[in-house]
Structure formats: C-alpha cells, structure tokens
Amino acid sequence: MDVRKDITIVPRDLSSRPKLRIAFVVYRGNPHSGGQGVYTRYLTKELVSMGHTVEVFSGPPYPDLPKEVKLTRLPSLDLFREPDPFRVPRLSEFHDRFDIGEFLLMSTGAFPEPRSFGWRLYRELSPRLGEFDVIHDNQSLSRSILKFQRQGVPVVASIHHPITVDRRLSLEHAESFKQKVGLYRFYGFVRMQCLIASELEYILSVSKVSARDISREMGIDLRRISVGPVGVDTEVFRPVPQMDREPGLIVTTASADVPLKGLRYLIEAIAAVEKVRKGMRLVVMGPTREDSPVRRLVEYLGLKEKVQFVGKVSQEDMVGYYSRCQVAVIPSLYEGFSLPAVEAMACGAPLVVTDGGALPEVVGAEESECAVVVRAGDSESLAHAILRIVDDAELGAKLARNAIYHVRDRYSWRRSAETAVDLYYKAIGQP
C-alpha cells in the first residue's frame, strides 16, 4: 500500500503575539532511547520555526538538536551510561561537590539524575534568568525548578505520565524481596517530583488520560494541567512505497527490562499463536539485557527461533519494519501517550494495542477503527487480536489506511508547539 497524500494542516496565525525567549531544560535527552530526546528535538525545532528563541539546557546523553537551537551542556558523571551503568568513576572525574553528591546517591542505590541535574541547572541558569521569558522543564521536576518559580520566573513543566505508575508496576513484578528493596531506593526521587509538581502552576501533559492520572497520582489540581499530544515527523515515518507485507512478521518497540511495557504478555501470546499458526516471528526493537526475565521466558517457552531481539535500531530500519510487518503490537500495561504507537500508525502498520492508560485515546478508538484494542496484561487477548489481523487481509488494510490519516490529521509537532506556546503566554500573563 502506498499512501502518499498528506492532509493539509493549517497553522494558527500567532503573528500578533510577542516572540519569546525560552529556556528548555531536560535532565537527559537521549535521541535514540525513550521519548525525552525526541520530544526535545522536535518541539524546540517547531518553536524556533514559529519565531521564538530556544536554548536547551541538558544533561548527558545530550539531545540531537537542529542548528537553530542552542545547546548548553551540563556535564555529569553519567553514572547510568551504557554499557556500564552504576559504574565507579575514576578519581580524576570528580570536580565539585555536585559530582560527589551524585556518586554518593548512586552508591546507596538511588537514581540521582533529577536531583543532580537540578543542582547544576541552578548554578548555570540562575545568573542568566534575565535572558529568558519562560522556563520549560521537560519532566526533571527538580527542586531548582520550584526555586525559579518562587523567584517569580514563569515556569511550565511537561509531565508525560506519572512516574508513580512505573514504580508501582516495577515493584509488583519484582522477583525477590531484595530486588523490591532496591527498587524502593531507586525510585526515591519520585517523592521529590510529586512534591515539586504539586506546587507548580502550569503543567503540560500529552493526553487526557495522562492528565487525569497525573492529577490523581501526584496531587495536582486537574485545572492546572493543559493537554497537548506530541507529534510525529511524517516525512520520516510514512509507508515505504512498493514494500510488501512480510507474511508472519510481527514487530514491537518495547524495552524488555521495563515491566510497564508488558513485553512478557506479548511473548506468551506468540507462544499461543505458534500453536495454531506456524511461520510467525516476532522482532523486538528496543534495549534488553542478556539476563532479562523476558529472555528467560523466551527460552522457557522454546521460542528462541521465533523471537528476535534487534536492540536499538535506526529510524530508517524502524520504518522498514513497520512498513513490511503484518502486525505491529504495543503490549504496554500503561502509557501516558505512546510515541511508538503513533510512529507505527504513521507507517501504515496494522496495529494491536492494549487499553493500558492513554493507548485507546491515542489510536482514536472511539472515533475510527485505527487499531485493535485488547485488555492490558492479557496474553490470550493479544494472541486472538494478532490472529484476527493475520487471517483478514482486508481488516489489516483498513486499519493501516485509517491509521495513516488519523496520525496526519492529529499528531503534528506544530500543534504540540502551539499548545506549549499558549501555556507560555498564560504563565507570563500575556493574553
């Protein structure tokens, strides 16, 4: 299928409003893993195209930014970098008290980056506050962000979903008491983030479901949360012309090491599918450890020849997998949004998602048939949905066609930026 015609999105006329100087802060902006780097790159690019000035303050790994966006690096010890997370730095790497504090927190099992990034951000940004009209915090939620607000600086904070859900699901899937104690310590920063978020005046979230959950889980008045879905680059994520569907190919983008992503249920579904339909195979895009419980499950179920972990892949390879797969699956137990779901739909992949969090909202389940929605944490339902699409080529084609137009109509970075700018003006008291 070759769907090339774009839906035209008419930008709002915002020319009468003053242009803003925006300090955009993100504690880690990895462009190849997770959504923070993607969000930072494309949102700031669109803000600049609207005439605003943006400077990004980021800890490592640093985001990949367009040349029009200035990047100010805030180096850290980068204690969780791959391939040696929880590393012990050399003595020569310690330069100040922030480095010492970061290492000491990590040594107790904590995840220090939101706190330590906040320390460095305050040191760098506080002497320069007069250079900016507004600070946009991308989910670091450090104490420094609240300090800036208390000093009268307009602050907007993006919260993509409540991290309390990640903590709860990780604890539920802990394999031992020792692991559970370690997880409690690792997620120690969550209490700080909830306290900070509850006092911030302007919150930007990515879906209605996420906004409601953030309000409930983090103690934030729902009236202080604005909703602006993230976008997708449809020049990159689009169907590849003349690329045929590969019979039996199922793909997913999910970290095998994060219980929240629900990959174990998809593996169990593949085992069920294999019993009734031979020739199926699953490709898993995303990071995974060799000792991952999901890998052990693959071994236990005898699926080593049926499940392929390809790790992190390029955007080009991801588009290729989505364009030629027979089914794409998002098996998450919870999502505040789900960029992988939108990217898969943009490529015309017949999609199966769970009802975890905002996924039904993202795929427009109440508006049009863009995906098959099943219960979260239900491997049997996943198996039935996969087989339903595999056995019905007409259904697969309809899902793909509807999904492409749904994405192009709704998920543009221009619309994301317009929502953010509306909140900026509200924060600075401009009509």
Which oligomeric form is depicted? single chain
Q: The CATH topology of the largest domain, please?
A: Rossmann fold
Count of runs of 4 or more consecutive helical residues: 16
Biggest sheet, spatial arrangement of strands = 3-2-1-4-5-6-7
The shape, in one word, is: globular
What gap, in angstroms, lies between the N and C termini?
Answer: 46 Å
Binned, the helix content reads 40-55%
Uncertain ranges: 1-10
- Overall pLDDT metric: 91
**In the residues, how many domains can be counted?**
2
CATH architecture of the largest domain: 3-Layer(aba) Sandwich
Order of helices and strands: EHEEHHEHEHHHEHEEHEHEHEHEHEHHH
| Proportion of strand residues | 5-15%
Describe the sheet with the most strands. 7 strands, parallel
Tell me the radius of gyration: 22 Å
Secondary-structure content class:
alpha/beta
Q: What does this molecule look like?
A:
Mean pLDDT is 91; it is low at 1-10. The chain has 2 domains: 21-231 and 412-428, Rossmann fold, CATH 3.40.50.2000; 249-410, 3-Layer(aba) Sandwich (Rossmann fold), CATH 3.40.50. The longest helix is centred in the C-terminal third of the chain and has 18 residues, at 393-410. β6 (203-205), α8 (208-218) and β7 form a beta-alpha-beta unit. Strands 3-2-1-4-5-6-7 form a 7-stranded parallel β-sheet, with helices on both faces. A 6-stranded parallel β-sheet has the order 10-9-8-11-12-13, sandwiched between helices. It has 431 residues and is α/β, with parallel strands linked by helices. It has 16 helices and 13 strands.
